[in-house]
């Protein structure tokens, strides 16, 4: 496999969080347990896709499969992004009682 470009990044601890900040405007915050928050600088608006949506400010079109089909269900959306065919499909949300939104804009 060919190597991609080298990306400068920093790793630091902020309170309870482990924070990884990449030089191109991406930050990942992890509570070292169950929650990850991904932050992008506005310059990347509408320039990304995947499990975190497309960052265009319209949460209604964030559930886009790898095949570029818009779906309404979280399970169908999540299962479409599996990378290993031997992984079973998710059949129920892991945090069914969570009040946290599935996507933010």
What would you say this structure looks like, in words?
The longest helix has 7 residues, at about 75-80. Strands 1-2-3-4 form a 4-stranded antiparallel beta sheet, with no helix packed on it. It has one helix at about 75-80, and strands spanning about 10-15, 15-20, 25-30, 35-40. The protein contains 1 helix and 4 strands. Helices cover about 5% and strands about 20% of the residues. It is mostly beta strands and about 100 residues long. The radius of gyration is 16 Å and the shape is globular.
Count up the helices. Answer: 1
Helix content: under 10%
The largest beta-sheet arranges its strands as 1-2-3-4
Radius of gyration: 16 Å
Query: Strand percentage, roughly?
Result: 15-25%
Q: Runs with pLDDT <50, length 5+? A: none
Order of helices and strands: EEEEH
Overall geometric form: globular
Structural class: mainly beta
User: What about the largest sheet?
Assistant: 4 strands, antiparallel
* Mean residue pLDDT: 85
Count of DSSP strands? 4
Concise overview:
7% of the residues lie in helices and 21% in strands. The protein has 1 helix and 4 strands. Strand 1 and strand 2 (17-22) form a beta hairpin.
Write out key terms for the chains shown.
1 helix, single chain, 105 residues, mainly beta, four-stranded antiparallel β-sheet
């Amino acid at each position: 496999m060919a190597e991609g470009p080298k990306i400068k990044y920093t790793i630091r601890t902020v309170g309870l969080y482990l924070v990884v900040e990449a030089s191109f405007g991406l930050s990942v915050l992890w509570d070292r347990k169950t929650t990850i928050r991904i932050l992008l600088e506005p310059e990347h608006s509408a320039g990304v896709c995947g499990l975190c949506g497309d960052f265009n400010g319209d949460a209604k079109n964030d559930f886009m499969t790898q095949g570029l089909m818009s779906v309404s269900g979280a399970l169908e959306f999540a299962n479409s992004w599996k990378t290993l065919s031997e992984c079973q499909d998710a059949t129920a949300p892991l945090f069914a009682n969570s009040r946290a939104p599935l996507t933010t804009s």
